[in-house]
Amino acid sequence: MTRWYLLRRLLQVVPTIFGIVIVAFLLVHAAPGDPVTALAGENGDAEYYAFMRHRFELDQSLTRQLGTFLARVATGDLGHSWLQGRSTLSVIAERIPATALLGGTALLIAGLVSLPLGVIAARRPHGARDVAISATALMLFSAPTFWIGQLAILIFALGFGLFPVQGMTTAGSDAVGLRHVLDVGRHLVLPAIVLAMNELAVLVRLSRTGLIDEFARDHIRTARAKGLTETRVIARHAFPRALTPALTVIGTRIGHLLAGAVVVEILFGWPGMGRLLLTALQGRDTPVLLGLFIIISSSVVLVNLATDLVHAAIDRRIRVG
Amino acid sequence: MKGRGVEISFGLAILLLTFIPGGCDSEGAHRRERILVAAISSNPGHLNPAITTNGGVHTAADLLFDGLLSFGDDLKPRPALAERWSVENGGTQYRFFLRRDVRWHDGQRFTAADVKFSFDSVLLRFHSRTRASLGPVLISIETPDDFTVVFSFRRPYAPLLSQLDVVEAPIIPKHLFAGADPLRNPANVAPVGTGPFRFVSYVPGTEIRYRANREYFQDAPKLDGVVLRVIPDASTQVAALEAGEVDWLFGVPGPERARLESNPKIRLTTTTISPGGSNCVTTVGFNLDRPWFSDLRTRRAIAHAMDRQQFVERVAFGNGRVADAPISSAIGFAHADDLAMPGYDTLEAARLLGAAGWSRVDAGARVARRVPGVRDGTRFVVTFVVMSSMTPYGDLLRAQLRQLGIDLRVVSLEPVVFAQTVFTARDFDMSIAPYCQGTDPQIGVQRIYLTSSIAPVPFSNMSGYRNPVMDSLFERAGSSLDVAERRRVYREIQELAVRDQPYIWIVETTSTQAHSTRCRGFGVAAHFAATATCDP
């Protein structure tokens, strides 16, 4: 892998994100609904709306607004949130850790649970275990996240009292250090599992299919003929090759995961970016919306780049440059 | 196999987490104190109630601030920052005498300068309701000394005392806001008020913490502190209350009420006041610019076709009562309780529609026959635009009007788009809105009827109703200070509204609040926690 390749790919990211920013800007402005109305609520008068429109530079032409916006973005200034009056960057930044923790844990759960299940299912296709695993995966894939989430709250939080219903920390808690970590951990379990379900289902099905294909190949037959144990055959020969498509999918599903996070964050009162996105959308808080678009799309683009690179590292057949 | 090992240890980790008691010591400490945990639905973003009418901000921030006056349980104005007042020059001048013992949470002394600054520089610019109602009639606010404030008006102005509470006109500290942009002041997220609670911390999207203000100028709070917990989903709020994670909910969704009612650890209370507004009447409006609604008989027919009791039971889940007048029964001095409102009568409805030229053809549909402005043979199809949260009203209305041969097409929109479609573009035939009437008809009711409030402003004159008689009646009601006289004028207003039927008033909605039996003594609306207490 050459340094030039990396540099070229990174440079490609810039116009991609630039394009996304412009499209996002136009989309937000084309959407029906007046941000000033959302902001001012009822009972204003025409003069008030005009005053607010002027304050937020909405009385200027669209091209001029776009120009101002792009000029600011270029200097790293995302402006001020219309609803909160604070810098957009800090409004978004304070939400990133919660979403990263939730999404990262969900991805980890999905990966760690799905791959072994895929192996179990693939060893005897259409056997009892495979049917059970595949059917469950299909069910999890089809069930809407909000439904799974509500069920999880009713059964595990309210019914058995195993986990808290909502939030990332206990209300009013002053815990620090390890206690704080454990408190967050307890709150994290349910939302992370719920968010993981969908990804888990996809990965189980993918790794199962990949492994079944691998098992039919010559090199596996050779490995078995050499007298290797089945565990070794799977771990050394089948698994790494079957892992490649799963990795690709994990990369492309980051956007999907964030979409799921919106639902999970609202349901569990998790203070992440997904909830901020919904509030900004409902309140037509354009600076925050655009800021989120930029950050989310950049992360999707960068994760995809990372996936390509990891890919190349795992699978020698793929060459970059 | 490696994967399996990791899986097992992860499973063990989850199991371990399950058995760790929540919050540990810190929670124990809080349990010894009297802390109220209340659920709020939205992350307020900032805590300055003077720059917005947003219900989320006011729910969270009003505990920190005061108005010149406050409302008792009867919604009558009572002294707060002002200890007494006098009305002078036939109602064109109001003189307020302020308390001398009030201090801001940072120790600075509260004076008349704070009041003048709050109105002149913030409320009259950024608080849309105060700006729209006071702005056009107010001449000036003067402060003859440190503890007197005089409001002068162009003409006698009746509703002033109803709009000086913390929701309508919170007073903010001049020493922190003077000379800077109030929308971006750092004090908006670290607020300093005079209210019963003082600000401790705000973790956006998570919670806001307050401590009791022991130096509060009225009765000091019995609680040690309040935690406002942001929980956006209504069902999750209910689950959190059941699990004991929160103690207070501002609203309970209708379908979940029965479950909470049977829970001995939870008490429900009903109120006409909600963070979004008070004394709300769900009202159907006709777009009077459409030729098929210019005939009174058609509007009256639709009113007769509606079984409003069904709306109370099936849509509001019993949260409310059938509206029996245009003005809410909660505004006692203005409400007329014996008006001849069109009752549920499908025969009369059919007769009126027929008389208006809408005759029934095969399959029960109605088509126009000599309806002025409508081409003969046009089917009676109505576009009914609703906010997504009010879609159930549309579905029930659709079923009720189908009996009459009217085809109602329900278009459900998110709130911002609804406001634009109905009030700016006026692109609808019929619509529905939860008009919150507040405490004085001059604020919350006249905007629904005045010709001048046919404007691109949400929740203004939706129907586009124009009647000069109505306009002058409101003018008269607003400039009289005699309650008996005002009652007479509001009665005339309501009779005229029923006669012209630009709207159909369906349900006076109430909201159900819920709290754990660990806590008691909650007050109304803004300062709900000021009188409350919870067992440690």
Q: Structural class given helices, strands, pairing of chain B?
A: alpha+beta
Q: How many strands, what sense, and barrel or not for the largest sheet of chain B? A: 7 strands, mixed
Shape label of chain A: globular
The helical percent of chain A reads over 70%
Biggest sheet of chain B, strands in spatial order? 8-9-10-1-11-23-12
Q: List segments of chain A where confidence is low: pLDDT < 50 over at least 5 consecutive residues.
A: none
Task: Please identify the structural class of chain A as seen in this structure.
Answer: mainly alpha
What does the largest sheet of chain A look like? Answer: none
**Helix content, binned percent of chain B:** 25-40%
Strand fraction of chain A: under 5%
Mean pLDDT of chain A: 87
Q: Unreliable runs of chain B, pLDDT <50, ≥5 residues?
A: 1-12, 14-30
The global form of chain B is: globular
Total beta strand runs of chain B: 25
Number of strands of chain A: 0
SSE inventory with pairings:
The complex is a heterodimer of chains A (321) and B (536).
Chain A: H1 3-30, H2 35-40, H3 46-55, H4 62-74, H5 88-93, H6 96-123, H7 128-142, H8 145-159, H9 177-215, H10 218-225, H11 230-252, H12 254-268, H13 273-282, H14 286-314
Chain B: H1 2-18, H2 24-32, E1 35-40, H3 55-61, E2 69-71, E3 77-79, E4 82-88, E5 93-98, H4 112-126, H5 128-134, E6 138-145, E7 148-153, H6 174-177, E8 197-203, E9 207-212, E10 225-230, H7 234-242, E11 248-249, H8 257-261, E12 266-271, E13 273-274, E14 277-278, E15 280-286, H9 296-305, H10 308-315, E16 320-322, H11 346-355, E17 358-360, E18 366-368, E19 381-387, H12 391-402, E20 407-413, H13 415-424, E21 430-436, H14 441-444, H15 468-479, H16 483-500, E22 503-509, E23 511-516, E24 519-520, E25 533-534
Parallel strand pairs in B: 1-10, 1-11, 19-20, 19-21
Antiparallel strand pairs in B: 2-3, 4-5, 5-7, 6-7, 8-9, 9-10, 11-23, 12-23, 13-14, 15-21, 15-22, 16-22, 17-18, 24-25
Helix pairs in contact in B: 4-5, 9-11, 15-16
